[in-house]
Fold this protein.
Amino acid sequence: MDFGPWLARQLKQSRMSQAELAQRIGLTRAAVSAWITGRATPREETIAKIAEALGTDLGTIHTRTADTLAGLPVSWAHRPGYADGGRDFGNAAAFAFEADVEVLAREATQNSLDERLDPGQPVRVRYTLHELTGEALARFRDEIRWDDLLPHYEAAAAQDQKVGRVIAAGLRDMYERDRLVLLRVDDYNASGLTGDDYETGRFAAVVRRQLDSHKSVSGAGGSYGLGKATLWATSRLGLVLMNSTLSEPHEGRTERRLIGRLDLPWREVDGKPWAGPAWFGRPDPDAKDANVTRSWWADEESVERLHLTRESAEPGTSFLVVGAHDVASLVEGTERNEEVEDDDSVHRMHHRLLEALGRNFWAAMTGGGTQRPLLEASVRTLRNGVEIFPETRVDPRHTQPSRTRALQAFLDGTTVERLTESGQVAMATVPLAVPGRAGRGSGGEHQAVLLVTEAADRDDVKPNRVTTLRGNRMTVKVGWVPGLPVGTNPFQAVLLAGKAAGDDAPFADEAEAFLRASEPPEHDKWGQTEELRMLYSPSAYRRIAALTNRTNKAVRDLVALPTKKRNGGSERLRRSLSVGGRKAGRPMTAAGPPKLEDLDARIDDDGAWDVTAEVRIPAGGDSWRPVPVAKLDVRSGPRPVLAWSRLVAVHNCEVVDGAIRFAPGARSATFRGTTDVSTHPVRALYSGLVVELRTDKGGQA
C-alpha cells in the first residue's frame, strides 16, 4: 500500500487531523497534505517522528501491511431497534432455503462461478469443515469477542420463535458437547468483495444488503440475490466471517480485507432494543453514529487466529460459517455407514458436500478441446487443525461418467449423428423460439444442443434422463423422457442451452436472458415466473414447454433401435422363455405398492397444474389400484388437497373412477392429470405441487 493512502487511513482511524499530526512532528500541515496526496515523501528522520505520533514502530510504517496500534480496536456494532417499534424476527431471505450443506454448496459454488475472474482459467472452490473442541474452541471464541456477543445470543434464544429455537440449539451443542463446527468456503480466481463498504459494489451487496444480486455477466446463475443467505441459514449461530483478496484495490490495498456479519432476531439486552444484524469490524470514524463498523485490513496473525488464512494472494473470498449444521442429513432414510459418528457429524457433512458438488457441477468441471474446465472443487475435513479427511478433489468422470463423456465429446468435436457403437455420443440441435421483450416481436431462434450417450453401469443416477444446463453449466433440472419404446437401451442425455451451447450458437445471449428469467430462486427448473411475465409476456413460458417437448422427441429419435435390432432382441427374449408345467415356478412374494418415479409439471393457460407422472411397478404389483392425489406444497401445516379436472391414462394403464388400473405384467406406467383451478386456495404460479399415490389398501405409495 502506498504511503499516502496508508497515512490518511491511520489518521482517520485514530481521529487525528493533518494539522494535529503536523504539530506533533514539528512540520506544517501542507507537508502532511503533500505526503497524503503523493506529491512528496517524508525523510527517514521524519518517519520516526510519525511512528511515535501514531504509537507504532518503524517496521509497521515501512511495510504498511497492517494498521497502527492507534487504530480503533475491532469490535461488534449492533443495529439499534427501529424508532417506530418494528421488529424483525430473522432474515426472511434465509427462509428461502433449507439449512442444508447441499443447498449451500449449490448456491455458494454458483456464486463463485459467476465471479470467475480470468475466463481462461477455472475458478477454484474449496470447502473445509473444521471441528473445534477444548482449548482450540476457547481461543476462537476469544478472538470473535464471544463475551460481548453472549448477552445478545441469550436474549435471542429465550424467544419462542423459529430463529430463537435454532440459536438455542446451537448454544446447547457448543456448551454441552464442547464443540463448534466451522465450514469455510474459499474461492480463487474470483473477483473478491470489491467496492466501498456502503456504496454499490460486491462488498456492499454481500455484507450490507439483502436481495442485491450485483451480477455483471449475462451467463450468471444467480439473479435474485438470495443465494448468499444460505451461508447464514447454515449457521446455527447466524454468524459468518469473511476474508477477501480483491481483484481491484480498495484504499490502496487488496489483501486481508475482513468483516463479520451476525444475523439475529430482534431482542432486548439490558433494557435496550436491537433490530437484528450486527457487524464485526473497525468503528468507522466518518460515521455520524458511533455504533457503525466497517471492514478492516488485518495482519496475518489475526487472520490465522480467525481460521481465515488463504493459501495465496490470488483474488477471491473466504467465507467462514460459524456453527455450521446440516438439517437435511437428519432426515429418515439418510444412508448410514460405519465412518459416521453421529447424524450431525462433520463426517456426514463431508460426504454430502462431495455428492452435491459432483451432482450439480459435473458439467462446469468438465473440459475438452481447447476449453479448460470452468471449475475445480474439493472438500477436506479437520479437527483442531488435524486432518480427518484429506483434501479430495471432485472428479466428474467418477461422479457422472456418462454425462461427462457426452459433454467432453461435444467440446472435443467427436460427436456422431447416430449411436452405432458403445461409447459414442450422438448430437442433435433443438430449436428454441425466444420471444421478444414485452411480448414484442421475436428474440430469434436459438439452437440448443442435445447430447445422448449410453448410461454407464457405475452411474450414480437414474437412466433415461435429460439434464438441462445453461450459462455457467450448473445443473438446472433432470427430467425423465416419457414415451420410450420397450427395449430402449439405458441412456443419459444432456441439453445445452443459451451460452452453454457454445460461442457460435445463434441467439445464445437472448436465450440465456430468457431462460434465466424463467428460473425460480432455487434455479432448479424452467417455467413460469413473475420475472418472465414482466419481461416478456404472460404466455412466454409456452416456449419452454415447446422446448421440452421437442427435446423429448429428439431424444426418442436418437435412442430408437433399428427394426432389425428390435426384432432380434425380441427373438432372443422369446428363446429365453419356457412354456409348460415341467418346471416349478419360484414362490411368489407379496408385491409392494407402486411408487411415483418422476413428475413433469407445468402451469397451463387456465392457471391449472398440468402433470405427467411416471409410476414404477414392482414385480407382481400390477394388482394395486392407487388413486393420485394432488396437494399444494406448503412449509407448515397440512397440505391443501386439489381436485382433478382431468385424469387420463398415457401408457400401460387406464383410469377407472379416479383410480389407476395397470396393464397385466406392466413394470411402469404413465398417467396425466390437470388440477381443477376452482379448488386452488392460491394461484399455481405462487405455489408448489406434491402428487401422492393413495392405495386402495389405505396406504400411500
User: Anything to note?
Assistant: The mean pLDDT is 84. DSSP finds 19 helices and 26 strands in the chain. The longest helix spans residues 542-559. The CA atoms of residues 35 and 41 lie 5 Å apart.
